[in-house]
Each structure stands twice: as structure tokens, then as C-alpha cells.
Specification:
globular, 170 residues, Rossmann fold, 28% helix, seven-stranded mixed sheet
Length: 170
């Protein structure tokens, strides 16, 4: 059994409309939400053993803030292929993960992450900014992750639930 934490980047800033989408930073609210997610991860005993993130500025910053807030000790792998990736791109990145990691976090973008969640679990969920879906996968090796693998949505968190009401079964 492997566990995948699917995280959409936190809220980005649109103050500067002359910068490329890849370079948009986080808003103040996005920074707060990323830290709240990190705290939630600790409370739910879901600290990842490995983090993979898109290279977009907002996802890099989300990854760093979440990692710091949940006391993640490893390195973050930044993968340019996850920017604008569909579910196949995320699956490809996850299939390359070392099997010593039981719990992996992937941080990226919609609509790719929402479709990934649906093809892994059969459940359609809207991933707001800084939302996290915890998926339990019936696989022994990350090479076995694929569409319709029969994963189970174990829990779901969004910033609006950070007031203490946590959705899901964990």
C-alpha cells in the first residue's frame, strides 16, 4: 500500500499582469493557506517522505512553505514536466519514485490534478487552491501506479476547513 498526497498550489497573485504564468508568485492568503496545510499534515500524521513539485513559482513556493510547516526533512524534486501536465504526466513522474517512499506528495496544477484524482479513485473532486487529497493506493511499487488502479480517497482538506473541521476519514 502506498499513499499519495495530491496538492494544488496555493492562491497566486495576479497583481502583475505582465509576467508569464509560470512566474506568478503567491498572494499573502496563499502563503497562509500553505502554512495551514502543513499544520494539518502534522495533525493528521501525513508528513510525506518525498515531495515532487511543478517548477512554476507558485508551486515551488507552496512546496517550500508546506514542507517547512510540516517539518519535512527531505529534498523537494522540482519537475518542469508537471507544469501544465495532464494525469499521464503526473503518473509518469510518480512511476519514477523510489519504492522506499511509502507516502509521496505531488504539488501541481488543475485541471491535471483533478483528473489524476478521478482516474486514481473514481471520485471527482474540485481541488481549490491549497487543497489536498490523500489517496491510498493498492500498489506495492510506484511503478504500478496507473489510471483506474482502484485507489481510495482517504481524506480531503481545503483551506476553508482549517478552522478545525476536517473532511474525510482520517
Amino acid at each position: 500500500m502506498k499513499t499519495l498526497l495530491i496538492v494544488r498550489h496555493a492562491k497566486s497573485s495576479w497583481k502583475q499582469d505582465n509576467i508569464p504564468d509560470h512566474d506568478r508568485p503567491l498572494k499573502g492568503r496563499g502563503k497562509r493557506d500553505a502554512r495551514e496545510l502543513g499544520k494539518h499534515i502534522i495533525l493528521q500524521d501525513l508528513v510525506p517522505q518525498h515531495i515532487i513539485s511543478s517548477t512554476a513559482k507558485r508551486t515551488r513556493n507552496t512546496a517550500k512553505l508546506v514542507a517547512e510547516a510540516c517539518h519535512y526533512q527531505g529534498e523537494i524534486l522540482f519537475d518542469r514536466d508537471l507544469y501544465e501536465a495532464g494525469p499521464t504526466g503526473y503518473l509518469g513522474a510518480l512511476q519514477r519514485v523510489d519504492d522506499r517512499y511509502q507516502r509521496v506528495m505531488v504539488i501541481g496544477h488543475n485541471p491535471g490534478l483533478e483528473v489524476l484524482l478521478e482516474v486514481l479513485t473514481g471520485e471527482a473532486r474540485w481541488l481549490t487552491t491549497a487543497a489536498m487529497a490523500c489517496v491510498e493506493l493498492p500498489i506495492a511499487s510506484w511503478t504500478g501506479i496507473q489510471e483506474y488502479v482502484g485507489g481510495r480517497l482517504a481524506s480531503f482538506w481545503s483551506p476553508k476547513e482549517s478552522q478545525g473541521a476536517v473532511a474525510g476519514t482520517r
